[in-house]
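In response to reviewer comment 3 from the previous cycle, which asked for concrete evidence that the modeling workflow produces usable outputs, we include below a single protein chain processed end to end. The sequence was submitted unchanged, and the resulting structure tokens are shown without manual editing.
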Amino acid sequence: MVGCALPIKAPPEVKDLVKSDTAFFVEAVRSELDQNLSHLLVKLYRRNPIQLPATLSIEARVEQLRVPKLDLKEFGGPKPDDLVRMAFHENFTGDRAYAFVAGLQSMVNHAFDHRREYLLLDDLPSAQFVYNSARNIETAAYLLRTQRNSSKEPYLFADGFQDDVLNASYSQLMGEMIGLQDALSKALAKKDQRALNAVARGAASFVFLPVGF
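The workflow returned the following structure tokens.
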């Protein structure tokens, strides 16, 4: 009599025994980035409600960000950097808020090799890609802050005065994502005993760096 072998799924506490301290750090940063990007999308919809498609809820859009591989067919399947720039094209008629955040989420996904869990023998993300991802968020934050349409209005309202009070929470949130990835990239580079290639960039850079796409 032949028995059927059933797959055994290890409980989380067992999986944690085969993870390095660096892997825990990678997973923690990855989780925080995912949460911050979801929060950024919610904030942009609340500030720019006209961007949300009538057939979708904010919750549905947030869920779309969390899938292992983003479905970007509604935008024609562009590369992540092109998707972020698309949010600031004058003739673009789609959801600018989702295009912007989904482009950033896709960059982060690529930088982390589309993974959210790392066991002991797994390859960790490239320190250079994580560093580049941080620089790309800097570029995206600059675009969000400066790009205007032909009527001199922001394509996406974000930081600014509301009821005579300065709201800089968008820049702060993106700054947190930059800081998280900078700290992680340094830790990964130290572990691998490699130097990061710190590309000289101006404050008004429009260039997105490669992160594996």
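The mean pLDDT is 89. We consider this sufficient to address the reviewer's concern, and the full set will be provided in the supplementary archive.
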